[in-house]
Amino acid sequence: MELSALQALNAARAARRAAVVVSDLSDGTARVFLEGTSFPAELAKAISAAFLTGRPGPLTIEGRSLFFNVHLPPPRLVAIGAVHISQALARFAPVAGFDMAIIDPRTAFATAERFQGVELLADWPEDVLAARPLDRYTALAALTHDPKIDDYPIRAALQAQCFYVGALGSRRTHAARVERLRQAGVAAEAIERIRAPIGLDIGASSPAEIAVAVLAEIIEALRRRDLGGEGGKA
After folding, report:
1. Given this model, what pLDDT does residue 233 score?
2. CATH code of domain 76-223
């Protein structure tokens, strides 16, 4: 790989940005394309598919033999609330390939005994996220039902363009949440991105079933996310 391509790829990794390296097998040249930027029209469909699936592979386009190598940041799941659903998510999320962290300032709930083997941050989301900001490759699940704990990370996730923002609660609870966010100055189009009630509608009842529904919705959002900028002329 040429030095310039390698440098671009390393910079993308450091910034937790997704990149696809398209290598021309006939001459050994390589080009790096970042998610959210414009792609050459003849490559746009293949690059977009690579970003969404995460799978590398060869492809022949306009007589050229190309290889698409995909470099995706490890997706993260940040759960707000050390609750029963979070306990189940802590078991399921790593199996699906997600790094997970749980944030809850309520030390009675956020205990190592209840959350063994998962990163647990017993502090206010405002303080945690100031040092560890969210990004486009993070899913946020707000699970406490407490506006004092949930509302700030929801706003932060929308601002960071997290690929998934979900919030636990009934439609009535969410209507009150929407009004609070609106009064806080959050744009209507951003508020519409919140998945609430959280999780796919599979009739889930127990905390474990709700966790499955939430994780399935997160995976769907990751694999069908808006790439932004694809298909344009580079």
Report:
1. 41
2. 3.40.50.720
pTM beyond 0.85: the answer is yes
Contact 48, 42 (CB under 8 A): no
Domain boundaries, the chain: 3-71, 76-223
Q: Is the pLDDT of residue 215 over 60?
A: yes
DSSP symbol at 116: T
CA triple 37-138-187, angle to 5 deg: 75
Q: Which of 204, 67, 89 is nearest to 139 (CA)?
A: 89
| 178-186 long-range contacts, CB within 8 A, separation 24+ | 180/147, 180/151, 181/151, 181/154, 181/155, 184/151, 184/155, 186/155, 186/158
For helices 84-95 and 207-223, the axis angle rounded to 10 degrees is 50
How is the beta sheet containing 64-71 ordered, strand by strand?
A: 30-34, 19-24, 64-71, 57-61
- Distant-in-sequence, close-in-space partners of 92: CB < 8 Å, separation ≥ 6: 211, 212, 215
Check pLDDT > 50 for residue 230: no
Assign residue 165 a region (left: φ > 0; alpha: ψ between -120 and 50; beta: otherwise): beta
**Taking a C-beta distance cutoff of 8 angstroms, is the pair 199, 210 a contact?**
yes
Question: Is-contact 136 78, C-beta < 8 A?
Answer: no
Please state, in angstroms and rounded to a whole number, the distance separating the CA atoms of residues 61 and 40. 12
